[in-house]
Amino acid sequence: MSTPTKSSEKLKFFGPESKEWKDLKPDVPDGKDSTVEQKINQAANSAKEELKTFLLSSLQMQHVVVLAGSGTSLGSTTKGPSMWSLWDYCVNSNPGTGSKTRTLTDSAKKVITDIAYDILIEKENIEALLSRCEAFLQVKDDENVADFIKASKNVILEKCSEFIDPADTNQLAAHRTFLHRLSRRRVRDSRLKLFTTNYDLCFETAAGRQGLVVLDGFSFTQPRHFDPRFFLYDIVRRPSTGDEVGTLLEGVFHLYKLHGSVNWSRASDGEIEIVAKPDPDSACLIYPAKGKYQQSYVQPHLESISQYFSVLREPNTCLIVTGFGFNDDHLSEPILAAVRTNPHLRLIIVNPSADDLTANSTDKNKYWETLFGLAKQGEDVWLINASFGDFVEMIPDLKSLTPAQRLTRDIKLLSGNK
């Protein structure tokens, strides 16, 4: 008998017009007879088959788009920094100790007092704190506040860079499998478009280890500089027979870093290049703050957000949202609008707390509430209660299907079976 797990830890999903969540690994209560246990297991196996069929049809759609949030870099394996850990290292005098008794540094204490930031109300939220600091500087010059912002940005840059271990081949196993399986789509379909809010290099590193090619808007020459035209380029394999007509190379995908990257640097002339370690002043990042919406309309972020808006309007599109909490309005609103206005959009939301986030609660995020309601009304919205790592294992490997499975899949697709 398995130990009962919390709702947020269970593997389950909710599909259009579903009456309830469907468990993929249900807990069998103690004291139940074999008949009841058999029925529970049969329901779970049926749910697994339904999910597998649904994911197969989703990956066969013409356009597959991914929005990956910070949740894809968290966890015991990847070890990326959480928003709370960034607060810990920016504000506390004993960061990284895990101690419940934490004290603020003298500089942080003074800044928090000067800008009237109430931790009891605002909580330990680095985004809210930096937003308040920036708003304060708009009305008053303050060297201490400016120094605190610069020091915090340096911490964020460092913590989002240092956790990737080049010697640990298992650290990015989930990222590698995710990219590998999604890159095995038919080459006649559009390239996978991966949008991420993360600063780190998890996807780039995983792609390199997997032998995949990333088209990220930067030149192929050194130094690599940003130019939106590079998103229009592709890579083909020219046959050795001399025929001038080549075929598209497998394993190529587009990567759009919506909030910048830890290896992007903006030069004094405005040129954006990839460098090993940019300093906080030149680093091309949209740091955690409420002003992210306005900053998104400056290059190179403008190109990424423009592409993001564009793909959500494309017909026959599957959008997979994973590790994203719908806390950024400038990214959440377009998704909600696309679900309502694009009749050919399928939305798959993956979150280890999806069940809890859609439950009745006074502080429920409006996007979770609305999207869950649309799913119950029959819109093509699917919610999967799973971590990024668990979801990766659910994704079917398209090229590992037997001929019979491929035939069954194609018949279902032709018959319009979702």
Characterization of the model:
- It is globular, with a radius of gyration of 23 Å.
- The strands form 3 sheets. The protein has a 9-stranded mixed β-sheet, sandwiched between helices. It has a 3-stranded antiparallel β-sheet with strand order 10-9-11. Strands 6-7 form a two-stranded antiparallel ribbon.
- Helix 5 packs antiparallel against helix 6.
- The two termini are 34 Å apart.
- With 418 residues, it is an alpha/beta fold.
- The N terminus is likely disordered.
- Helix content is 39%, strand content 14%.
- It has 15 helices and 14 strands.
Question: Which descriptors would you attach to this protein?
Answer:
Rossmann fold; 9-stranded mixed β-sheet; 418 residues; 3-stranded antiparallel β-sheet; 14 strands; alpha/beta; 2 domains; 15 helices; disordered N terminus
